[in-house]
Amino acid sequence: MFAGEYLCKVDEKGRFIVPSPIREQIEADGQAVTFLKGPEQSLLIYSLKEWEKVLDRTKTTLDEDQSRLFMHFVVSEAGTSEIDKTGRILIPGRLRKQIPLDEDLEIILVGMYHRMEVWNPSEWRRYIARTEDRYEQNMSKIQNLL
């Protein structure tokens, strides 16, 4: 399970060092990850094992038309990267444009149970500010789960 928030530097080639708690989980599921376009200028990252689970669920859940749409609009946009020997992952170039990087070349990795999200730090802060009201409205239910 992925949890936490991590600030990572991105080099000029689009690679970032995966924080060790995240890296250990990815390596336990294989050496690679799959990147997908996410909501609001973010990316989703799945370990290969979790991505295979998503694909299996779609095969059993979606009808033929829905499956074709999923393949055309989601799977065709996916990109896979392996963790290199120094613990870095390359964000595929065409997907890197989804999270416009600021001059400081930083990203935020956010653990989301079975996947992670990648955000530009400025966009992440704006997203949190926009959704804070919804969190406040649902806080009692959320707190009861803790």
UniProtKB/TrEMBL annotation:
Secreted as UniProt keyword: no
UniProt key word Transcription: yes
Transmembrane segments: none
Domain of life: Bacteria
GO molecular function: DNA-binding transcription factor activity; transcription cis-regulatory region binding
The family this protein is said to belong to: Belongs to the MraZ family.
Name used for this protein in its record: Transcriptional regulator MraZ
Native source species: Nitrospira lenta
